[in-house]
């Protein structure tokens, strides 16, 4: 469909797909499809209640239908209208909701780590992020409050909020110094500002000589225990939601409430970066629409 509408796109590593120009083109494509399909889109309308049947009481009057599809998304980015409405409907009908939390979200440093690293805000480095059995080879970005970038966003979806996350800042091996200072050698393999700070923090400030083994070990396993996340305001998606055990995997219909469907991010399905959450939203919508 994207090609049909002549929307140029490109693929990055790990199968991530992005528009060449703007995601607004995808929105316009979907709205055009809705118009051609005779879909009625109502805006400026507040939903007051949902009753069995299904009757939806709104600020513009009541709507009735044999089936009701909940596609209200999660809690991420509340400034664009995210609410817990979908979860409330699920609970109203006795459907289990898995506890929600921010995912694909920047992480916040402790006050001590912030003092040590956050004046390097804007510095980015390729890393291997690891938590438990999950690893991601992507970029890490130091921010004014902590760390972000694709590697951090990806691993944040798996972080338990309690244990440290390990980052390998030097996936390869450290070059031989020869007659050069260690700062010079390291500055050729990771950003110079980060290299200088790393040497100063772990060795010079503690009055320790730079030893190759200690330097490599530290770079290969920098353990960070974040103080928390940037929350739903900065999270790209919401982990948790309507339990998949409660829904048909073929139609997305609630097993215990015939005619009630849940699709997209309101369901407890969280994808990686690169359009996978959009793909889930559209795939679940297709299954639901086919059943209807």
What does this structure look like?
There is one protein chain. The chain is α+β, with helices and mostly antiparallel strands and 292 residues long. It is 26% helix and 24% strand. The protein folds into 2 domains: 42-103 and 238-291, FAD/NAD(P)-binding domain; 107-229, Elongation Factor Tu (Ef-tu), domain 3. It contains 8 helices and 16 strands. It has a 7-stranded antiparallel β-sheet. The longest helix is centred in the C-terminal third of the chain and has 16 residues, at 276-291. The two termini are 21 Å apart.
The CATH class of the largest domain turns out to be Mainly Beta
Strand content: 15-25%
Radius of gyration, CA atoms, in whole angstroms: 24 Å
Structural class, by secondary structure, is: alpha+beta
Overall average residue pLDDT: 94
Q: What is the CATH architecture term of the largest domain?
A: Beta Barrel
Domain count: the total is 2
User: Biggest sheet, in brief?
Assistant: 7 strands, antiparallel
Ends: how far apart?
A: 21 Å
Supply the number of helical segments: 8
Report the strand count: 16
CATH fold description of the largest domain = Elongation Factor Tu (Ef-tu), domain 3
**Low-pLDDT segments, ≥5 res:** none
Which term fits the overall shape? elongated
The CATH superfamily of the largest domain is Translation factors
What level of helicity do the residues show? 25-40%
Q: Describe the strand arrangement of the main beta sheet, using strand numbers.
A: 13-12-9-10-11-8-14
Order of helices and strands: EEHEEEEHEEHEEEHEHHHEEEEH
């Amino acid at each position: 469909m994207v090609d049909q509408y002549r929307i140029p796109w490109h693929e990055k590593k790990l199968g991530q797909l992005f528009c060449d120009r703007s995601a607004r083109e995808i929105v316009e494509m979907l709205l055009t499809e809705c118009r051609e399909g005779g879909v009625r889109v109502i805006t400026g309308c507040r939903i007051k209640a949902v009753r069995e049947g299904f009757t939806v009481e709104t600020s513009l009057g009541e709507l009735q239908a044999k089936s009701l599809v909940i596609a209200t998304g999660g809690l991420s980015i509340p400034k664009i209208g995210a609410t817990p409405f979908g979860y409330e409907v699920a609970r109203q009908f006795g459907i289990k909701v898995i506890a929600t939390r921010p995912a694909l979200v920047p992480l916040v440093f402790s006050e001590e780590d912030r003092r040590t690293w956050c004046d390097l805000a804007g510095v980015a480095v390729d890393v291997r992020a690891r938590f438990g059995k999950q690893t991601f080879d992507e970029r890490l970005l130091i921010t004014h409050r902590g760390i972000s970038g694709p590697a951090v966003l990806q691993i944040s979806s798996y972080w338990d909020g309690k244990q440290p996350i390990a980052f390998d800042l030097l996936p390869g091996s450290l070059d031989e110094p020869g007659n050069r200072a260690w700062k010079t050698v390291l500055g050729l393999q990771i950003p110079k500002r980060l290299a200088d700070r790393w040497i100063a923090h772990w060795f010079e400030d503690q009055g320790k000589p730079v030893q190759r083994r200690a330097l490599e070990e530290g770079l290969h396993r920098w353990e960070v225990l974040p103080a928390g996340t940037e929350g739903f305001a900065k999270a790209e998606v919401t982990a948790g939601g309507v339990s998949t055990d409660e829904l048909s995997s073929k139609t997305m219909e609630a097993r215990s409430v015939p005619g009630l469907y849940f699709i997209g991010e309101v369901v407890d399905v969280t994808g990686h970066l690169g359009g996978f959450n959009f793909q889930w939203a559209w795939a679940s919508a297709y299954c639901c629409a086919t059943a209807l």
